[in-house]
Design goal:
heterotrimer, A mainly alpha, B alpha+beta, C mainly alpha, A: mainly alpha, C: mainly alpha, 12 helices, elongated
């Protein structure tokens, strides 16, 4: 409990820093006023809008105004949609969540067995094959894989729908697209953590007791190898969310990623701020949870 | 080990089976997964590259958004090009003096919420956009001084100056008539969430960046709508949009890349249609003395060095038309002698550069947007390559649209920039307004006294014939002076499912009621 | 960042094996050897691009556009791997593209590595407030996905070779900082560091003499692997329209441009895709081999 309290306490300065980063990013993006007014607007009209939006205040004051708004949950209005930015972002969360979780499931399904197998059959042809496959999965940019999957499985074989959000069928291709890169990374990490464990004393002891290799792998090594997998999954959250920017664009998936790409493109900075902040909280939370699970699973680590 | 493999295979299998099941379920309810030639669904699904911007018809300037809005809102009248203006919400109109237009409103038109359309709604709508300076369409309506309501079905529009293009202004983006009472009692926020118009289709649901669903409005004054339901999907990635068309996911897909035309046409059940648009792609050049392009010989050399026909044939695979004027046929005042014309003579270009004292070559900067127009980046690359053939070194500067439009507003480009202008007014005067001395200041700095005079006179000339001559003469002079060098008029390529008939419009609007089931 | 967890454990002073031993082990590792060959090959290709390329990579030719590779019908040996949509020779563009792809990959990693190394050493060695500030900054940057960060910055400053390298370097340094810090923390508690401190050695000397060399092996492994990640990131940025801009050419740009032609002219995107895959494969094999050699935990 004490540890959890400390971890939570630590996130406060992190969150503050994130607000500062996000704020600065947005303030250096140039003059939002020129995008908000028609091009026929006079300099005077621009100036009065600037004044009204508070862009003429010193940066420090603007930041504190921004912070106090933020505490009240006010991220400003999207100028594209003329509505509250936070609401827009929260509306998109379920779609992105759905995609992210499905991708994670696919990544685990692929990577756990392959990672373990290639560690057990280390340096075999099979291992080489999987390692090569993992590199291939890593080397393939998301957009490329997505387009290829659509052409193959939607257009040629018509197994899955092409794009959009709907039933489970709509989820498969984007989830594979997003999950493959993560799976590749996880396969490699599971392999090496398995290798580490297989070389440890208790496994040697088990071997010397004459236990079968399958039992050793299943009962002892596999369980222990799962512990770092949890951490790895959490660490991939940020990559995963980053991947949605591209995957959602390719598959016309109405989630946070597409919202972000389009908002950046038209400089709808209130939305960018709100979305970035929500994502950051999400990533921090998942790391925190992973940390706790890790400590729970691995009795060797003590609560200090 | 075998167990693990088995487990994995089972999981994958389960996922695939589940997914297929899910896919089929969806197909029957929303999209029609099966090849479409058999489908007679009364839902029409249309794929655009972007979502609509807003339901505030006055606060956007996006053609693709307007293309959707025309199914929900009506203008007072529609511009049918050669056939002139046709009544829509207005039954008749007359120009009673230079500054006053009197309209007779159609009776018995109701908004989707049951409210009846009266002249007060027209006054409310037009005066809002004419007076609120923060609206993006304000600049195209601020010529309206006031709207005077004479009776429930009769009103007058008074303009600030004589306004020959008044009807053009009233039949385009932002001209839809809004329900005054609904907006005033419920507020704009409610209207933007639950928009109400007079059109054949009414609002049902909007999932941002995914789909907008409209349903038939049975009381539509123009008769029973053609479709039960319209779905406008937003699919930003070109290849995904094409794939949706090829699998029958959508009935209509706009902005098909030229490369995919043959592939679509060779697939049974789908085809493409090409039609000219109002968009003309051009280079805008600085003509002031401080720029190398200030020398008319240099501008001519640039024009002659670029093989526009080759660009149309290769990059656009034929989906465009070369032109020497930005005012293409279908517009008031178009000079058709300059249409389908182009100049290409690299030999002469080299000579001209020699004469201008640039025999050893010259260097200039060309700025273009990246990803805004069809093949914009490739066009800039090709222009640069062609110019380098005659000894002009081009510094290409490709920037993404927001940054580009900011520079555009600041008029901060170097010697040349590449841009495509649309023209929803269908009138030459407004198409050329950036070439008057005032309009060109800081951008091309073009200042030809005769052109200036012609354009300013045409702006307020209420004699259509004389006005047309003024505009045509100005285009001739501009073609010689080259403050703008025209590349080509873009065609719209639309992919359609063979179950429907679709006639593309010059103004790129999508009138669902003109689309019929085969 | 995932590698951090693996390397977080304390390490012995590595890289004590002599060069000969290394070479021997390299020869024994099939994948390591393959990785080295690929990396050397690509590097040579980048260096000698002007000699190797048959055509000017920017030379357009609208008549010969979208020609297939020479072995397909309609292709010819002048354009071995065919031409792209503007009639440019794809092979020449791949050869020239290797320059920018590698330059971005390597420079960004060097930049990120340098920042991360310095800040990681400071945080780990001095601890306290400095550590707190640096590590909280690391945590905040880690909470924002790289690609989102880059998207925003590049949209503002406009993509160019320099901004790309700065942005890629400026956002990925956190991985190194984390790793270096945790290694430094454990190394500085070792006896030889303590005794050096006791006899009054300067901080700078302790850091450079005792800590840096011990951190270096994990550092090299991560850096190598990150070259691969950076090359792929650049391709993703190209997809979003914020990668390298013409007339420069990179593999990522070619791949992203070519996606429009996947169904009609497969070669436009396939060859740059293969180039990326092979290079990434090479780099990762090399990095894995380095880890096996330098990381004592996974000794054979």
């Amino acid at each position: 409990m004490k540890y959890m309290g400390q971890s939570l306490l630590k996130t406060i300065p992190v969150l503050l820093l994130i607000t500062l980063i996000v704020f600065l990013l947005v303030r250096v993006t140039g003059d939002p006023v020129s995008l908000m007014l028609p091009e026929t607007a006079t300099e005077q009209e621009r100036e009065s809008l600037r004044e009204a939006m508070g862009f003429n205040e010193p940066l420090a004051i603007q930041y504190f105004t921004y912070l106090s708004d933020l505490v009240r949950g006010d991220f400003g209005d999207s100028f594209r949609y003329n509505t509250d930015a936070l609401t827009l972002v929260l509306d998109r969360l379920p779609a992105t969540f759905e995609l992210a979780i499905a991708s994670m499931i696919i990544a685990v399904i692929i990577s756990v067995p392959l990672g373990i197998l290639s560690a057990v059959k280390r340096n075999s042809f099979f291992d080489l094959f999987i390692t090569g496959g993992a590199v291939l999965g890593k080397a393939m940019p998301n957009f490329w894989l997505g387009i290829m999957l659509i052409l193959l499985l939607s257009v040629t074989f018509q197994v899955f729908p092409v794009s959009g959000r709907g039933g489970l069928g709509h989820l498969v291709l984007p989830a594979i697209t997003l999950g493959t890169g993560i799976a590749a990374e996880m396969t490699r990490l599971i392999r090496s953590s398995m290798l580490e464990i297989l070389g440890q004393d208790f496994i040697r002891t088990a071997r010397s007791k004459g236990l079968g290799e399958a039992i050793i792998v299943n009962k002892h090594a596999f369980r222990n190898a799962l512990i770092p997998v949890v951490t790895i999954m959490a660490l991939q959250t940020s990559t995963l969310v980053g991947g949605t920017l591209i995957t959602e664009t390719v598959f016309a998936w109405p989630g946070l990623g597409q919202l972000l790409v389009q908002s950046v493109n038209i400089r709808d900075m209130a939305v960018v701020q709100a979305a970035t902040f929500i994502i950051a909280i999400f990533v921090i939370l998942s790391n925190l949870i992973a940390d706790l699970i890790y400590r729970f699973l691995d009795p060797r680590i003590k609560y200090d | 080990m075998k167990k693990l493999w088995l487990l994995m295979m089972m999981l994958v299998l389960a996922l695939v089976v589940a997914a297929c099941g899910g896919g089929e379920d969806d197909a029957s309810t929303e999209e029609g997964e099966e090849p479409v030639e058999t489908s007679d669904s009364r839902t029409l699904t249309v794929a655009y590259g972007t979502d609509i911007v807003s339901f505030d018809i006055h606060d956007h300037n996006t053609t693709s958004t307007e293309a959707v809005h025309v199914n929900m809102f009506n203008y007072l009248l529609t511009n049918q090009g050669e056939d002139g203006f046709q009544p829509d919400l207005a039954e008749s109109w007359e120009n009673i003096d230079d500054n006053t237009w009197r309209f007779q409103l159609r009776e018995g038109v109701t908004f989707h919420n049951g409210e009846e359309l009266t002249a007060d709604d027209v006054k409310f709508t037009l005066e809002r956009v004419a007076q609120d300076e923060t609206l993006l369409e304000h600049g195209n309506y601020n010529q309206i001084e006031s709207v005077n309501v004479l009776s429930d079905y009769e009103f007058e529009i008074v303009t600030v100056n004589p306004e020959p293009a008044m009807l053009n202004r009233l039949s385009r983006l932002g001209s839809g008539i809004l329900p005054q009472e609904y907006i005033e009692t419920e507020g704009w926020e409610v209207f933007l969430e639950q928009p109400v118009g007079t059109g054949p289709y009414q609002f049902k649901e909007w999932q941002r960046d995914d789909r907008l669903t409209l349903e038939a409005y049975p009381e539509y004054f123009g008769g029973e709508p053609e479709w039960d339901e319209l779905v406008f999907r937003s699919i930003p990635e070109d290849s995904t949009r094409v794939s949706e068309l090829l699998t029958g996911g959508v009935d209509v897909a706009v902005n098909i890349p030229p490369t995919d035309v043959a592939r679509i046409d060779n697939t049974d059940g789908v085809s493409t249609v090409q039609s000219p648009t109002q968009r003309v792609m051009m280079l805008v050049l600085r003509t002031d003395d401080d720029s190398v392009t200030g020398d008319p010989r240099v501008r001519e050399a640039i024009d002659l060095a670029i093989d526009k026909q080759a660009m149309v044939d290769s990059l656009l695979e034929g989906a465009g038309t070369v032109t020497r004027t930005r005012v293409t046929p279908g517009n008031v005042g178009a000079n058709e002698d300059l249409y389908e014309q182009t100049l290409y003579d690299p030999e002469r270009a080299r000579e001209l550069l020699e004469e201008a004292g640039y025999g050893d070559g010259l260097e200039l900067t060309l700025t273009g947007p990246n990803g805004r127009y069809l093949k914009d980046r490739e066009t800039v690359e090709l222009i640069s390559a062609m110019l380098s053939e005659v000894g002009i070194t081009v510094n290409q500067e490709l920037i993404e649209w927001s940054a580009f439009s900011q520079r555009y507003q600041e008029r901060g480009f170097a010697e040349m920039f590449y841009i495509g202008y649309g023209n929803s007014m269908f009138d030459a005067s407004l198409a050329l307004d950036r070439l008057t001395a005032e309009g060109a200041a800081g951008e091309s700095d073009y200042d030809n006294a005769e052109v200036n005079e012609l354009l300013i006179a045409a702006e307020q000339n209420m004699d259509p014939e004389e006005r047309e001559q003024q505009l045509q003469r100005a285009q001739e002079l501009i073609a010689e002076d080259r403050p703008q060098i025209y590349m080509f008029q873009l065609d719209a390529i639309t992919g359609i499912n063979d179950r429907i008939n679709f006639e593309p419009q010059l103004n790129e609007m999508f009138y669902a009621d003109s689309v019929t089931l085969n | 960042m995932a590698q951090v967890t693996e390397n977080a454990a304390p390490q012995k002073a590595a890289s004590q094996s002599s060069f000969k031993k290394l070479a021997k082990r390299l020869l024994r590792s099939k994948t390591g050897m393959l990785g080295l060959i690929i990396v050397v090959f690509v590097t040579l290709m980048a260096i000698f691009a002007p000699l190797l390329a048959q055509h000017d990579p920017a030379q357009t030719n609208v008549v010969d556009r979208l020609l297939p590779p020479f072995w397909s019908e309609g292709g010819n040996t002048e354009f071995l791997l065919g031409t792209d949509n503007l009639g440019r020779d794809i092979l020449s563009r791949i050869i020239y593209g290797s320059r920018i792809s590698l330059m971005i990959g390597i420079s960004a990693v060097l930049l990120a590595g340098a920042i991360g190394m310095v800040l990681g050493l400071i945080a780990g060695y001095y601890g306290k407030v400095l550590d707190f500030i640096i590590m909280r900054t690391v945590d905040s940057l880690l909470a924002i996905p790289n690609i989102l960060f880059m998207l925003i910055i590049l949209a503002v400053f406009g993509p160019s070779l320099l901004t790309l390298i700065l942005v890629l370097g400026g956002t990925t340094w956190v991985v190194y900082a984390r790793m270096v810090r945790s290694e430094t923390l454990s190394i500085k508690e070792r006896d030889y560091v303590r005794s050096a401190k006791a006899i009054g050695a300067k901080d700078f000397r302790i850091i450079t003499k005792y800590i840096l060399p011990n951190v270096l092996s994990s550092f090299i492994v991560i850096a190598t692997l990150n070259v691969a990640t950076t090359i792929i990131l650049e391709a993703s940025l190209s997809f979003l329209g914020l990668g390298i801009q013409p007339p420069d050419v990179s593999w990522g740009l070619m791949l992203s441009d070519g996606r429009q032609y996947i169904a009609t002219s497969w070669w436009v995107a396939t060859f740059p895709g293969i180039a990326i895959t092979i290079t990434v494969l090479g780099v990762i094999f090399l990095g894995d081999w380095l880890r096996d050699v330098l990381d004592p935990k996974i000794k054979e």
